[in-house]
Every structure is written in C-alpha cells, then in structure tokens.
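Instructor's aside before we start: the two examples that follow are unrelated to each other. I chose them only because their records fit on one page, so don't look for a connection. First example below.
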Amino acid sequence: MLIVEDNADLRTYIGEILQPNYRLIEAADGVDGYFQAREKVPDLIISDVMMPQMDGFQLCAKLKTDEITSHIPVILLTARATKASKLEGLETGADDYLIKPFDAAELQVRIKNLIAQRRQLRARFSQKLLVEPHEIAVTSADERFLQRALNLIEENMAAPEFNAEEFSRRIGLSRPQLHRKLDALTGQSTTEFIRAIRLKRAASLIKQGYGNISEIAFEVGFNHLSYFTECFRKEFGVNPKDYV
C-alpha cells in the first residue's frame, strides 16, 4: 500500500494504523508518489489532496490514465468538505474520498471494501478470459490493457520463444510491472497468463477438429508434446485427446 502525504506526522499516523496488516510504501509529495506507484505498482494508494508540486487530484488523474497504474484503487484524503471538492476528486477517477479528520476504523473499512471490490473485478476478468480473447468487450482502461496483452499473445501464439521477458519488452513494461498488473487483474503471473491463453486456444482448436494433438500443441507454441499434455491436464482436468 502506498501512502502519499506531505505532512510527516499524518503520514506516520496513517502508517501506524495500517502497519499491522499491510506492507507500506511512503511518498512525501505527488511527484514521488507517481514515481513510486509506477515503480512498485501497489495494491492501493492513499493520497492527500493538498500537496506541493503535484496535488492529489493531479496525481489521481495521472494514475488512472497510466496503463501501469490504472487498476490501482485510490483513496483521497482532504480537509475540504465541500461537495464541489468531493466531486472534483471523484471526477479524477478516485475510488473513495475521506474527509479529515477521519476515523481510523472507517479508513480500515474503506480499504477492506476497495480490496474486496478489486478481487471481484479480478474474478470477472478471469471469467472473461475463459471465452475466446476476441470476444472480450473493451470498456475500461484495464480491459483495454488486457485486450492489448491478448492481441500480443495471439500474434505470437505459435512462437515458443514468446516468453515473459519478450512479452514485457513488446508491451512496454518492465517484468515486475507487468507481473504486478496481470496479477492484480487476473490473479496470474505473466508466464501463467501466456500459458493459459495458449491452452484455451488449444482447447478451441481441439473442439474444432483442427488437427491431431501434436499439430495443435505446436500451433499454440509448445515444443514438447509431453509438456503440453501435462499443462493441458492441469488446466482442464483431462488429457487433450479426451477433451472433446
């Protein structure tokens, strides 16, 4: 969890509230907060609104339009309790808004609710990946990212050398950034994500009667039939030849 707060005392107070349950990263202003968010890709961000260099509204807007960080829930903290200020925060894409001084228990509950919402969203994305990639609707920044990721895998489906390292290079993220993004959205590592898409394509080809099992294995990027069979059985519970 990333805490972005220019007031050192308040930053320490928030840290003391959260320390027992979360691993914490701290930033003293919005600029450093944005850098830390892109570098570490935390599960949730708590940010003050009034800060030097880059305020919380600007930070939130940048985070929500950046492919690396668009999925991260953001809670904005502010002393301004006006409706206009709250609307401004929500319009930047903030997921929640808390007025100072806030109750520690309320902050904990709001964090738990946002984490639960992200888990539900991850389950929804994972369910969508059960269908063919081209059937996924593109309606949000996260879904657009997934679509781009799926397109890259489809373009390199038959290439065994298309691995996690090549995937991260082609999509323009570091390997840790890509891993954190995919784990947040799908619950899978980069390698698991690539393998799952290949296996789902293989299952589709088997149902279509595309060819024999060896041909299908090579078509989806597996060099060794035995490894393909092992992975397929783990994914679907049956051997490829028994799948239909």
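Example two begins here.
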Amino acid sequence: MKMKKKLLALALAVVSCFTLTACGSDEGKELQDMDLDKYMELGEYTNIEISPVLEEVSDKDVESQMEYLFSIQAKDAGITDRAVENGDVTNIDFAGYLDGVAFEGGTGNSDLEIGSGTFIPGFEEGLVGVMPGEEIDLPLTFPADYHSADLAGKEVVFKVTVNYIIPEISDETVKALGNENYSNVAELEAFAREIVQEEVDSNNYDTIVRVATNKIITNTTFKEVPDFLVEQQKTIVKEQVEYSLQGTNIDVDTYLSMFYGSSLDEIAEQNVKERMVIQAIANAEGITVTDEELDGELETFATDYGVTTDQILEMMGTDREYYREYMYGLKVYEVIYNNAVVLDAQ
C-alpha cells in the first residue's frame, strides 16, 4: 500500500474536513475560493523543528512477520502424519455449542499453540494425541469468571477438527511453500523485514506530519474561526462517530472524551483550523489536483481491490470531488513532511 494512503488514519476527521463549504458571506464557495486572509495569518510552515517519537524496526517484529507469512501458507507444508503434541502449533476448525445450539463467537478457524493457554482450560489439552483430519468433541466448562456472562460457568461442547500441524520454519519447509518471493529462511526474513520497514516508515511519516501540522496550527494566528464551518464539522464528526458506535452503548461525547480527550466542539474547531491551514498552504504552494491525477489515483486504488472506480467510491461512501479534496490535502501533507526538521527523534 502506498504511504500516502496510510494517512487515512491520521486523525478522526482529516478526510471529512476536506469538503467544507462556506456559507453566509461566502455562500456557495468552497474553502479554496474563500479569502482566508480575513480569518487567519498563516504561521511559518517550512523548516518546522519537531521532536516526534518515532518507531524502529525490531527483530521481534520481523520474527512475528515471518511467522505470520509462514503460517498463512503452511497448509502446503503442514504435518499430517503424526498426532498433536504439546507445544505444537496447529491449524484447527472449531464450533462451540451450548445446549446443542452454536453460541456467538464460538465458531472459527485458528492457528493454536498447544499449551499456550489461549483457549479455555481443557481445550488445548484435549487436542494432544489427535491426528490431523480427525474431528473430536470436547465437553468443557467455561470459567466462572469468564468475561461473557452468558457463558461463565456454563457446560459446552466444542467440535474440533485438527487440519494440520504447522512445522518449524526451516529452509526445507520454506521451500515447500512454493512462494516466488522466498525459498529459504534467509529470503523469508529479508522479505518480512521489508514489510515491517515499510510499515514503520509509513507510521513515522504519519507521526511527523501530525506533529508538524499541529505546530503550524499553533503558530498560526486565527482572527476568526467561522462558526458555520465549526457547526458543519460538528455534524460531520457526530454522524461519523454515531455510525461507528452502532450496536454499542457508548454515546458520542463519552467516546470522544475516552479516545481523544476532547469534546465535540473542541474537535470540530481543531478540524476547521487544520483545514484552514492546509488550504492556506495549498494557496501559497499553488497546489492543484488535475482530472488526470484523480482518474489515475482512483483507477490504481480500484485495481488494488479488484473493483471499478465507481465501486471504490461507493465503498468509501464518497464521490469524485470528495476524493479530489482528499488528494488535495495529501499533497499539502507531503509539503509539510518534506519541510519538517526532525530533531532528537526518540
């Protein structure tokens, strides 16, 4: 995935604030057509000195990625000619039944290390001695303090099939995967390290942009933050959060306080300030997004997911102009990133 797409996770409403439309004296105008000098004096946005906390690639993360890559392909190298032993990592299908009825969350497929204590007491012990391909019933009792009150202390039956035992990673077993990207342990490790490095670089990009943008906002003088834009943002953020909280008992204010430490009013105003700063930088830099750029980006994105451009827009719940505004903002973030001066990064 391209690094700039990772910026989708930068903040709660970064994308949503790219579609602010003015009203009142600026009625019918996009933010890019407003005279922002009436509302603000843009602070310095180049050579911004910051000290963000950045990630590093660790051997542990690389090892975990190797194990993940190996496990998702291990069916082709899986052990099927001996019984399960304690310490084995097995691939299993399971379904749990309470009074003969499958209960919610009790059915699935999993890679399970026998003896890890991942499943409830008796589950993993019950698989020792089972041959791959064999299905067994495990009558078990959920702990009295189990987090689900519906299952705590209840007697259930798990129907479990051991599909195969995942072997140790070795040159032989890696080669048996038949993967074109690696045929031995060293190549698997190198491939995994590239994946982890890309993720770390992407996360650090996001962090630098976020910290630098916040500093630019702090350095900017706002003569006025238009109320109509703040109200617009309040509506957008509230609708987004309400949608994500469907099926929960958490209200919007509680969620924002718990996860962002801010109120709806504070987040909306901060979003508007950020968008105003982004627009001001775009104006100063002469940033635009052409139809050709927009079409190319949407086609690439759609190809990645195996759908059409119309379908990808539908999946994102947006339209072409909305996505153009998103790309427009990303270009500004690139300017901010390229002009940030990272000092004493942790």
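Confidence is low (pLDDT under 50) at residues 1-24.
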